[in-house]
Design goal:
Layout (H helix, E strand, L loop, with lengths): L5 H8 L4 E6 L7 H12 L4 E6 L4 H13 L3 E6 L13 E2 L1 H6 L4 E4 L5 E4 L2 H12 L10 E4 L3 H13 L3 E6 L2 H11 L6 E6 L12 E4 L23 E4 L8 H8 L3 E3 L2 H16 L8 H8 L5
Parallel strand pairs: 1-2, 1-3, 4-6, 7-8, 7-10, 8-9, 10-11, 11-12
Antiparallel strand pairs: 3-5, 5-6
Helix pairs in contact: 2-9, 2-10, 5-6, 5-9
Length: about 300
């Protein structure tokens, strides 16, 4: 295991309060641009960086120990592949994060203990309502591709929003079954598991399609999905934002579906974390912020 480069991160912070994004890989992340924009706009003292942390408990545990012993470290964000693994390594986890079973935001308390939170569900549903204001959760089933940490947040948000049926489609069926068991509400609504090779058929009569897998991300295999059975009125959301306009979104838009890219989910999920680390009220998501964070993604 290569040790994470804590010294470079501390040097870049230069004595200021700081937070950072943790992932493997992590260079693609736009979180530094997001929080850097808010820090600059508010003229707040602080720094937000990135830290490459290999998969496996040892490297992530070392990262959390670094935050605990570093008073100016305010916390971190977690991206793939650390969101689920983090649960067992933190001092406390909020009820929402425990229910979702994944953490994307870590906050260092004054006593040095670390609290795990999940703001992905908030970010997802906020971005969906902003990008598709006419979408009615109760009107039609939703199809979710994937069953990892992001899918857990998405499914939690959809169940809470009142979607009548959520269809889970994942390459590993048992993982999807576990997710369905975790989130099936007790009010008669259903979470249905569909086999990956039936993903095209699962789109019939859906009102929303959400891709939470890494398929279609730059450097990853493409998402092979025929959209013929998807109703033209359905909304298509891809949580991938590198590239901003994934092949899924391009094809969906060409056939008349309203599309929501993954960038706004990133922007909205960052709001609670920023306020926890750097103080003040939650910052706003604006068109200027989106342009600044998108950079060469094309927004």
């Amino acid at each position: 295991m290569a040790s994470p480069d804590f010294s470079s991160l501390s040097s870049a912070a230069a004595g200021r309060p700081f937070a950072f994004i943790v992932g493997w890989p992590v260079l693609h992340s736009r979180s530094p641009a997001l929080h850097g924009y808010w820090l600059k706009r508010r003229k707040a003292e602080g720094y937000y960086g990135r830290l490459a942390v290999e998969p496996g408990g040892a490297a992530l545990r070392a990262t959390f120990d670094f935050i605990r012993r570093t008073p100016m470290a305010r916390g971190c964000n977690l991206t793939l592949p650390h969101k689920i693994e983090a649960l067992a390594l933190l001092d406390d986890v909020t009820p929402a994060a425990a229910r979702i079973g994944a953490v994307n935001t870590v906050v260092r308390r004054d006593n040095g203990k670390l609290e795990g939170r999940n703001t992905d569900a908030f970010g997802f549903i906020s971005a969906l309502h902003a990008g598709a204001p006419d979408w009615l959760p109760s009107a039609a089933p939703a199809v979710v591709l994937g069953a990892g940490g992001a899918a857990r947040a998405v499914v939690s948000a959809l169940v809470d929003a009142g979607v009548p049926e959520v269809r889970l489609v994942n390459r590993t069926r048992q993982t999807a079954i576990d997710l369905a068991v975790r989130f099936t509400p007790d009010d008669g609504r259903t979470l249905v598991v569909e086999d990956w090779d039936r993903r095209d058929a699962a789109l019939a009569d859906a009102g929303l399609l959400v891709n939470t897998t890494s398929l279609g991300m730059r450097g990853q295999p493409p998402l092979e999905l025929a959209l013929d059975r998807l109703p033209p009125a359905a909304v298509v959301n891809d949580t991938v934002y590198v590239p901003l306009r994934t092949d899924l979104l391009v094809r969906a838009q060409a056939r008349g579906n309203l599309t929501v890219d993954g960038l706004d989910m990133l922007l909205h999920q960052g709001r609670p974390g920023f306020a926890a680390w750097f103080g003040g009220t939650e910052p706003a998501v604006t068109p200027a912020l989106r342009r600044a964070v998108a950079g060469d993604l094309g927004a």
